Here is the input.
Amino acid sequence: MKKRYFNKAFRLFEQFRKRPLNGDDLANAESKSEYLEGKVDEFRLLIAMTKDVFAGRYQMNKWNLSIIAATIAYVISPFDGIPDMIPLMGWVDDVTIITYAVSKLADEIKNYKAFTQGGLHHE
Here is the structure.
């Protein structure tokens, strides 16, 4: 049964990669981040990266941005692999998706941290 939920989660993740984000989505994501326990900082980092891209302060390729957009959309969506209203289990799929995204974005995250710490411009 658990495998079925995670398969559904990754199918939804792929659909969410095509969904554009807006400022309301980012605000909603920030408010939901408190429920992500050990992944709060990583998720907030993805939100910060997106804000910097939207503001033109940081550049990244569309593929990496689509992974971040899908992750944020997944977390804020009421429709996901395991509904958030299910006690304890409801956020497990969200945390799994964040873990997946962070692993795929390891190089981009390293570049972004260098950018924020050194004021470097990423091309």
